[in-house]
Amino acid sequence: MERNGQTRRVCRRCLTSEMDEKEYFAHLHAYIDSLDEEIKADRPLYQKRLAVCKGCDLLADGMCRACGCYVELRAAVRKNACPYEKWKKDEDAD
Predict the structure, then answer these.
(1) Helix, strand, coil: what percent of the chain each, to 5?
(2) Is residue 84 domain-resident?
(3) Mean pLDDT, to the nearest integer, of 26-40?
(4) In the chain, where does DSSP find H-type helix?
(5) Does residue 29 fall inside a structural domain?
(6) Domain ranges, residue 16
(7) Phi and psi dihedrals of 83, rounded to 5?
(8) I need a labelling partner for 54 at 20 to 30 A (CA). Which of 5, 19, 47, 61 fits?
(9) How many CB atoms lie within 10 A of CB 88?
C-alpha cells in the first residue's frame, strides 16, 4: 500500500488509531465479505437491519453509541441481535 510516496505494509495487528480511516473500513468490509455463508445474514436481512440502524439516533460514524459496536459488522452475522432490541436475530438462526 502506498501513502505519501512511501510503501506501507498492511498491519493486521495495528490499533484502529494507527490506521487511516479508509484503510480501516476497507478491512472491516473485507472481513464482512469473508464471513462463512453459514453464519452470514442474507442480503435482505442485512439491509433491513442496517435500515433500522440508519434510522436510530444512536448511530454515529458507523458505530452504535449505546453499545459501541460497528453496526455493519453486528448486522452481518445472522444470529446477532441489537442489544437494545431495535432488531432481533433471524428466527431461523441456530
Answers:
(1) 35, 10, 50
(2) yes
(3) 92
(4) 21-33, 43-54, 71-76
(5) yes
(6) 1-34
(7) -65, -15
(8) 19
(9) 11
Does residue 48 share a domain with residue 22? no
What's this model's pTM, rounded to 2 decimal places? 0.74
Provide Rg for the chain, Cα atoms: 15
Do 75 and 61 have their domain in common? yes
CB 41 within 8 A of CB 77: yes
pLDDT digits (tens, 9 = 90+) for 35-44: 999 999 999 9
Which residue carries 432490541 as its cell?
Answer: 85
Q: What does residue 15 show for φ and ψ, rounded to 5 degrees?
A: -75, 155
Closest CA to 45 of 21, 75, 72: 75
Taken in order 45, 67, 37, 91, the sign of the CA dihedral is: negative
